[in-house]
């Protein structure tokens, strides 16, 4: 068992690289806001740099373009875009998050290590080269490929898209059927308006989808936290073993044990902690940009009749959603995340 | 000693004290001072401010560090305090070399990319780690 | 003579303090009246222009500017009115004020990060007995709405 841990750990240590690339703002117009991970907010300017954890938001008339080492990212109006990172199979990699709005990605060339793209309900693996992601008010996503290949995954099912193909992914559900879509054919504003309208006219259905998606994030967070705690406990034990070896077998043996066992465990434990945060922030994005927006719009709609059955029914489910969020996600958040 | 001498001596002492501490008061924090602050943070029972030694704009893990459970504590367990951090090379601020020892703790070598905030306040942008100072694991904190 | 001066100074200070308090009460009343009038007139655009982002609706943080406008549009479209509105109470924001909106980490963080020290919580009562909370402050002699809760 120990040998297996050593071998696995060696592979992990060798593989860990910082591959989360910053993105430079090369164009900015209208209402565009850069929200830095430390909580500061400022108007986005050409030359500003997004690092991991930073977000760019465009308003009604905002547009921006980013360059991330060979990828051009064109951000349309009404969009929330965040650079995230996740540890997978011993590697830390960038994840481009589209919580709301529409973004077009264009890769100069495919290297095989393109970052994943995520929305509130789906994850896309990219083998380039040009595609657009739409993230709707109800949490649904639409992926449209102009050239290259994109694999879209949700709820354990995946769909491969090639040029002129698109797929819609309802929140909390697997991808739908592929369809033909040509360059710039989809009007995001109209598509999103329809999604918002459908969500507000059937809040029960929308809540079911949100509950499903949130449950998945809470499970992921719980799983990562559990893994992190396991590794942390093992790390504590191996450190105690190292201390024993130092006393009983001498410095050379202890150094070898540290290099082969303790140190790789430490690195992997830290990487798992990173994944807890990734999953937590993904849940926060769903809570803020889908669930929270739905609450605000419905509150306005029902404000003159808050005793209506529809509102009280929605409120009960919403409170249950928040209770789960408070218990599972909030303990992993920090003030600057809000 | 004449009063005039006492006053002069007091002024010299005050001036030196200001020189040593006043720069920090003005916001300038040297690499050595920053590593010293980080050491103090690791040796504090409350580690929730340790993140303040990292660059708020350029360190991607800045928010992840705010809860010490996920990164700080696994790397420098509270059971091995007090930690001692020694700067062994700072000629290149993008590769500052630091050795970390602790009570019953296997020596950890750090290679830090440090950059200043606008006021000359040196902060840690990223941290590579090593067990021997030769083979580095890149981006353990970035 | 010195005693007369001291008594006069004490009286002046008391008057000044009382004036401050009554000035503040007057601001609070004016703010409540202004928001109530705008609500009753369905002036969504004006309410939106007074509102800042991030904005708080009950325990929900609104980060997108157009969503704040949509909220007020929705409120106006729903025909929401606060007839006979009056100021119930106006208090300065304190470290515990967030609990009045929602006792959550997120709302606590909202207050900590986005609500300045000079903001006030105004409780408005309508003639039906319902309450609304407004989180407001003054900026360059105009009023800003930072949060809205209710009716409850």
List keywords for this structure.
heterotrimer; A: 338 residues; alpha+beta; Jelly Rolls; 15-stranded mixed sheet; globular; C: Nuclear Transport Factor 2, Chain: A; 6-stranded mixed sheet; 4 helices; 45% helix
What's this, in brief?
The complex is a heterotrimer of chains A (338), B (142) and C (152). Chain A is α+β, with helices and mostly antiparallel strands and 338 residues long.
Please outline the helices and strands.
The complex is a heterotrimer of chains A (338), B (142) and C (152).
Chain A: H1 2-15, E1 23-29, E2 32-35, E3 41-43, E4 49-50, E5 55-58, E6 63-67, E7 71-75, E8 80-88, E9 91-107, E10 116-118, E11 123-135, E12 141-154, E13 157-161, E14 165-169, E15 179-180, H2 188-201, H3 203-249, H4 251-302, H5 309-328
Parallel strand pairs in A: 9-10
Antiparallel strand pairs in A: 1-4, 1-6, 2-3, 2-5, 5-8, 6-7, 7-9, 8-9, 9-11, 10-11, 11-12, 12-13, 12-14, 14-15
Chain B: H1 3-25, H2 31-42, H3 72-75, E1 84-89, E2 96-102, E3 105-116, E4 122-130, E5 137-141
Antiparallel strand pairs in B: 1-2, 2-3, 3-4, 4-5
Chain C: H1 2-40, H2 44-50, E1 51-57, E2 60-62, H3 65-77, E3 86-92, H4 105-114, E4 120-125, E5 131-139, E6 142-149
Parallel strand pairs in C: 1-6
Antiparallel strand pairs in C: 1-2, 3-4, 4-5, 5-6
Helix pairs in contact in C: 2-3
Describe it.
The complex is a heterotrimer of chains A (338), B (142) and C (152). In chain A, 43% of the residues lie in helices and 29% in strands. By secondary structure, chain A is an alpha+beta fold. Chain A folds into 2 domains: 18-187, Jelly Rolls; 204-337, no CATH class. Chain A is globular and about 75 Å long. Helices cover 27% and strands 27% of the residues of chain B. Chain B has a 5-stranded antiparallel β-sheet with strand order 1-2-3-4-5, with helices on one face. In chain B, strand 2 and strand 3 (105-116) form a beta hairpin. Chain B is elongated, with a radius of gyration of 18 Å. The termini of chain B are far apart. With 152 residues, chain C is an alpha+beta fold. Chain C has one domain (29-149): Nuclear Transport Factor 2, Chain: A, CATH 3.10.450. In chain C, strands 2-1-6-5-4-3 form a 6-stranded mixed β-sheet, sandwiched between helices. In chain C, a hairpin with a 2-residue loop joins strand 5 and strand 6. Chains in contact: A-B, A-C. The A-B interface holds A 13, 16-18, 20, 36-38, 40, 51-53, 85, 92, 228, 232, 235-236, 239, 242-243, 246, 254-255, 258-259, 262-263, 266-267, 269-270, 273-274, 276-277, 332, 334-337 and B 56-58, 60-64, 66-67, 69-71, 74-75, 77, 80, 104-106, 126, 129, 131-132, 137-142.
């Amino acid at each position: 068992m120990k040998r297996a841990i050593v071998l696995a750990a060696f592979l992990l240590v060798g593989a860990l690289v910082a591959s989360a690339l910053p993105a430079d703002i090369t164009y900015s117009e209208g209402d565009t806001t850069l929200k830095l991970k430390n909580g500061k907010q400022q108007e986005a300017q050409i030359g500003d740099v997004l690092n991991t954890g930073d977000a760019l938001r465009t308003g009604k008339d905002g547009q921006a373009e980013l360059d991330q080492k060979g990828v051009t990212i064109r951000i349309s109006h009404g969009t929330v875009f965040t650079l995230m990172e996740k540890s997978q199979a011993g590697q830390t990699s960038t994840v481009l998050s589209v919580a709301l709005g529409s973004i077009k990605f264009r890769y100069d060339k495919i290297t095989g290590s393109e970052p994943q793209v995520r929305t509130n309900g789906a994850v896309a693996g990219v083998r380039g080269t040009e595609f657009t992601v739409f993230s709707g008010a109800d949490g649904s996503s639409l992926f449209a490929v102009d050239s290259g290949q994109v694999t879209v995954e949700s709820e354990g099912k995946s769909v491969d898209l090639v040029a002129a193909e698109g797929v819609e992914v309802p929140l909390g559900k697997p991808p739908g059927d592929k369809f033909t879509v040509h360059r710039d054919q989809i009007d995001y504003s109209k598509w999103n308006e329809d999604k918002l309208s459908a969500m507000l006219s059937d809040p029960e259905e929308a809540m079911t989808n949100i509950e499903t998606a949130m449950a998945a994030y809470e499970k992921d967070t719980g799983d990562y936290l559990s893994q992190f705690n396991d590794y942390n406990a093992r790390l504590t034990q191996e450190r105690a073993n190292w201390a024993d070896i130092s006393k009983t077998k001498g410095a050379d043996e202890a150094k070898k044990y540290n290099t082969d066992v303790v140190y790789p465990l430490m690195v992997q434990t830290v990487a798992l902690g990173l994944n807890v945060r990734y999953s937590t922030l993904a849940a926060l994005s769903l809570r803020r940009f889908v669930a929270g927006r739905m609450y605000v719009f419905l509150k306005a709609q029902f404000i003159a009749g808050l005793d209506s059955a529809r509102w009280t029914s929605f409120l009960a489910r919403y409170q249950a959603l928040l209770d789960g969020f408070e218990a599972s996600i909030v303990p992993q958040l920090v003030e600057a995340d809000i | 000693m004449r009063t005039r001498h006492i006053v002069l001596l007091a002024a010299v002492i005050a001036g030196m004290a200001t020189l040593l501490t006043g720069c920090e008061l003005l916001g300038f924090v040297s690499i050595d001072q920053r590593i010293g602050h980080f050491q103090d943070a690791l040796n504090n029972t409350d580690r929730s401010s340790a993140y303040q030694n990292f660059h708020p704009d350029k360190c991607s893990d800045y928010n992840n560090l705010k809860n010490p459970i996920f990164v700080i504590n696994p790397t420098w367990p509270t059971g091995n305090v007090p930690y001692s951090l020694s700067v062994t090379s700072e000629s290149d601020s993008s590769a500052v070399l630091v050795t970390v020892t602790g009570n019953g703790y296997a020596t950890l070598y750090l290679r830090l990319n440090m950059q200043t905030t606008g006021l000359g306040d040196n902060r840690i942008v990223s941290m590579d780690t090593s067990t021997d100072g030769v083979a580095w694991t890149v981006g353990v904190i970035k | 003579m010195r005693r007369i001066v001291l008594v006069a100074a004490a009286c002046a200070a008391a008057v000044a303090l009382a004036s401050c308090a009554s000035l503040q009460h007057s601001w609070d009343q004016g703010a409540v009246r202004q928001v109530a009038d705008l609500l009753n007139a369905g002036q969504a655009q004006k309410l939106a222009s007074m509102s800042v982002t991030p904005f708080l609706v009950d325990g929900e943080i609104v980060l997108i500017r157009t969503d704040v406008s949509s909220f007020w549009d929705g409120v106006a479209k729903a025909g929401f009115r606060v007839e006979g509105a009056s100021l119930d109470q106006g208090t300065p924001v304190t470290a515990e004020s967030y609990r009045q909106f929602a006792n959550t980490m997120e709302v606590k963080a909202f207050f900590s990060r986005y609500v300045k020290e000079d903001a006030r919580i105004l409780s408005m009562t309508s003639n039906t007995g319902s309450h609304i909370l407004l989180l407001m402050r003054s900026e360059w002699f105009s009023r800003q709405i930072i949060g809205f809760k209710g009716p409850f």
